[in-house]
Amino acid sequence: MIFGDPDAMSFGKTKEAAGMAIEGRERARELEVGAQVLSGQLGKTIQRLRKAYNLSLSELSEQSGVAKSIISQIERNETNPTLATIWRLSQALDVSIDRVLATADDEPFVEKSTRRDTPILVSDDGRMRLAIIGWIKTVEWLQWYDLRSEPGGVIESEAHQRGSVESLSVLTGEFEVEIGGSVQTARAGETLRYRCDRAHTVRCIGTEPGHATMVCMIKAAVME
Prior knowledge:
Layout: H1 6-52, H2 57-64, H3 68-75, H4 83-92, H5 97-101, E1 120-122, E2 128-132, E3 142-149, E4 154-157, E5 165-172, E6 174-179, E7 182-187, E8 191-195, E9 200-205, E10 210-217
Antiparallel strand pairs: 1-2, 2-3, 3-10, 4-9, 5-8, 5-10, 6-7, 6-9
């Protein structure tokens, strides 16, 4: 008994094989498109992190062991780096490899710190308190504080890294900053920006308590 036409069966197998080939090409195309999207996002992430740490291409190359030209190509989305290369860059940038590979849609970020979790610095005279509200992961290049002071409170700071700049934005009360023999004052709504790569002093002047935010940008610029 003949259950089917051999030619028809051959044709059917050929058609099935052709369909598998088409599906294979489509899958390969999807993977290629996905790789290109990932590569583009990777380049943006590497560049963003490098600039956040204020690193040049040469400095990141030296710290990671990845050639400067390769890093440049990655940032411009001109190459698909190996996993080993991505790992070296993630180590140099002090982030997890998952974070480097994550897409913008894959990394929603909300972090909450309670009052109990917030470290407090107190001036030597006990009148000025600085709550460290900045992110600990940025402390090497960006620091910010919530500053509250009783009248007459003083905080004296040693010089930070060369090129560092500090901003003091007054919310209430009045403050003065003394640095290098120069003194400037600011009231509510005003901001003082100054080099903090030399010894400097912040005072709460007047008869009212003071409240301000202080942001320190490490190695922000070399100001001559």
